[in-house]
Amino acid sequence: MMSRFLLLHCLILISLFITAATTNTSSTITDRDALLALKAHITHDPTNFLAKNWNTSTTVCNWTGVACDVHSFRVTVLNISSLNLTGTIPSQLGNLSSLQSLNLSFNRLSGSIPSAIFTIYTLKKVSLRENQLSGAFSSFIFNKSSLQHLDFSHNTLSGEIPANICSSLPFLDTLALSKNMLHGGIPSALSNCTYLQILHLSYNDFSGAVPKDIGNLSKLKELYLGRNRLQGEIPREFGNLTELERLSLAGNNLQGMILNFLLFYFSYACF
User: Fold this and answer.
1) Hey, what domains does the chain have and what are their CATH numbers?
2) What is the rounded CA–CA span in Å between residue 115 and residue 138?
3) What ranges in 41-126 are assigned the alpha helix state H?
4) Predicted TM-score (pTM) of this structure
5) Tens of pLDDT along 56-101?
């Protein structure tokens, strides 16, 4: 009787092991196919980086620019920045369901940013700065997630900042959208991004008043609003930003004085 019990126990363990191994294999194939889709969407790779480093003879976890979880072998980091790559971003990147950090900055990628990327619940950091990406920023559907760092600076994105961005991304600490083609008002609801430390909105076409509620962002360290069409008074509530280190308001039609006690906190300021 005991031997039958032990045999059954062993069979169950073997079955569980096979199931787990099959699941991991299926997941890593999904990740591999997503990365190969990205490779296929690159039309010019001047250093042959992907051709030399991304091939099916090795596991994706050994591909340059890729890092994996040591237990599940799922892709958690993708960094192929500063390679002068030309091409587009495929929607298949949304299948990297364990991805935590995506960095495609300083390339020449064009076209739209696939919304599928923002369905990855584990994603914490997205940096796509210094590309030629286009489309309406307001069209992105941000699911409530752990996303903390969002940098789309130096592209050609248009549209407005969604008023609900902070309720969708409650842990956001960096929002960098400088040098795009964004317009409309700066939503006062940005004050609900209570973890925000960096807010870069310079060199766009924002208009209207600077929301005084930004003064409630107690963790804010960098605030760049320069080179827009903002007007009205500089909010006195900026005096509440005691962590602020850098401020840019130049190139607007703003009035008022930057209070002396506020200037005391700056290590660098550009008005």
Assistant:
1) 2-270 (3.80.10.10)
2) 11
3) 49-53
4) 0.87
5) 999 999 999 999 999 999 999 999 999 999 999 999 999 999 999 9
